[in-house]
Design goal:
This protein has 255 residues and is an alpha+beta fold. It has 6 helices and 12 strands.
Length: 255
Amino acid sequence: MNEHLICSLCMGYLRDALTVTECLHTFCKPCIYQHFCEYLTCPTCECQLGPAPLEKIRSDRAMQNIVDKVFPHFAKEEAAAEKHLKREADASTKKRAAQATAESDSKRKKVSSALAAKKKKQEKDTSASKKLCLSLFPAECAAPLPRLQKPYLRSSVEATVKQYKNYLSGKLQAEHAITVLAADIEIQCKGTPLKNEATLAAVWKEYWNENDDLELCFKAETRERSNGFEDVQVWSRWNSFSIHSVTDDVLARNV
């Protein structure tokens, strides 16, 4: 009886028995499927099963019931093995899913970072490409500084007041041989002194906000000391003179 319950391919007791309908030989399901990967014949009698041998086999529930009744422990072991394999497969699937999710998140972060960097660069390029026209003239005061040879300028909106103070200091030295420190220059818009860190865009929005070109004026500041004023070289358009330190004693004598 045993020989009818044994698969001739694996020489073990039948598992998920399948019977060839052409010759009625029975085999384990995994065994016969693997055999049909290479051959198109019955493993026992070599009966030709045509180009689609899987269509010539059927599940043999009666034969499998006999095996399970004669050897019940095999069925239990098979169920336990299948359960174990299923757990391993589920664990492997979850691990691959977690890895795929991690890779997807990593790729998404890289893409997001790249897009953010590209957007930031575009915004920077756009901001840098924005220009405005402005004029720089000496302020009307007791001792005005000379006028620049080219007072009309085109500048980036991100340029700061401090940068223009340095620009004026260099231009006054180059064009008129006048030494005025950038720290001693005051730039105004509509009579309001501007802070060093202010950008032209901020100045336009806060003080100007008109359709015409931005108009700025500049002058040399004086710094107070405890006993008078610090010397600051200032020059008119036609001649030059200096404001010297004036003490309280000199003022008293002039009175």
